[in-house]
Each structure stands twice: as structure tokens, then as C-alpha cells.
Amino acid sequence: GFKSFWINGLMSAASSMIVTASLIVFGIYILFALNVNYIVQQLSSQYEIQVFIEETTSQARVKEIGSNIKSIANVKDAVFVSKAEALEDYKKQLGESAEMLDGLELDNPLRDSYKVTLIDLNGSEEVVASISQIANVALVKNNKEAMDTIISISSIVKNFSFWIMILLSIISVFIISNTIKITVFARRRDINIMKYLGATDWFISWPFVVEGIIIGIIGAIISLILVSQGYLYIIGF
Questions:
Q1: Host H or E run for residue 137
Q2: Residue 106: phi, psi to the nearest 5?
Q3: Helix, strand or coil for residue 199?
Q4: pLDDT digits (tens, 9 = 90+) for 13-45
Q5: pLDDT of residue 13
Q6: Using an 8 Å Cβ cutoff, are 157 and 36 in contact?
Q7: How far apart are the first and last CA of the chain?
Q8: Which of 21, 31, 125, 135 has its CA 20 to 30 A from that of 56?
Q9: DSSP 113
Q10: In sequence order, which residues have a C-beta less than 8 Å from that of residue 10 and are 6 or more positions away?
């Protein structure tokens, strides 16, 4: 198998390049799918439900409401945001126009609130319903349209990635198998001679198996280097 790989150098090189090209295409799509899934997961993890507390609620009760929210199933975390912190956030968002909010520190119209993150966005409606039943909760702000969009994108990406990966796998196997067939066809004369001399099928096929393994390893190494280095180069910008 090793000797045959070197003797048939041109055919071996061509086979290795075909395997490399197939694996590069497959690797690029895997990286693309993984990055899109990661972005969708990040958007899902950053999605928050805002819970506003009634103005007359005592600080002790505000803390108790936070504990009640955290105890609800599917709630990942509930972060308290005081009305003073909310005012500072608005000032940062306004940038140079933040001076319009000067003086509101003395009579802050904003309310204390909690930013609630979920484990699974699909159960958001149940969480909103449970939070709304807690005493002293004035308003639960849930951007359902944005959440539905994120869920829809996540589902489409997962399904699309799954089927495309299956399709690329089939194409890659088809290309590689045809490459092996071409290699065997190119040496049909040698195979016939060995057959006439009484060689068994295993004796004839094993060198091709070894040669195929060598071609596969070379193709895998080259494609791994090219795809990984290309990816690192792109994300380096």
C-alpha cells in the first residue's frame, strides 16, 4: 500500500486533493453552522424580561419579590436594578444629550425593577404569567415579537444545519468513493494479473485499503490546517 502510494504519485496526489477539497467544503460549513448557532444562543441568553415594582413597595418587599421570581421554574436569574441605576443607564444611552436628565435625581420618575433571564425561551409566557401574579408587581415587560423571532431563527438554523450537514456528508462520501473507484480502475491490469496468479481478494484489496487510509489522513491534515488557519486569520480582523 505504501509503495503503491509513491509509485502512483500523480494519481495519489489527485486523490488526496479531491479528499482535501471535500473536507474543506464540509469543514467551512461546520464552522459557519457552529458560529450561527453560537450567535443565536448568545441572543437567547441575553434576552431579558423586565419586571417593574410598584413605587410604594418597601425595600424588604422588593427583595422578597426577587426571591419569588428566582423560585419560578425556567427562571435562570433575576438581577435587581434600582431606579437610580436605571436613571444612570438612560444617561449613558443619551450620551452628550444626558444633560436633559439633570435634576431628576431628586425626583426620579423611574421604578425599581428586575431583569429576568430564562433557561428556555419557549416557556416565557408561563414565566410572565407567574410573575404577574406576584403582589406589588406593577408591570411585566416582555417583548414577545423579538423573542418569537429569536426562537424562529434558532429553530430554522438548527433544522437547516442538520439537513445540510447530512447532504454534505453524502456528497463527500460519494466523491471519495468515486475517487477510490477511479484509482482501482486505473490499476485494473495489475489486479487482473494478480487474479490470474491466484491472489485472494483480501491480498488484492488490503493494499488499496492502506493506500486509501494514507490518502484520507493526508487530505484530513491538509484540510484541517487550511480551514483552521483560515478561520483564525478571518477572526483576527
A1: strand 137-141
A2: -80, -30
A3: coil
A4: 877 888 888 888 888 888 887 887 787 777 777
A5: 82
A6: yes
A7: 44
A8: 125
A9: E
A10: none
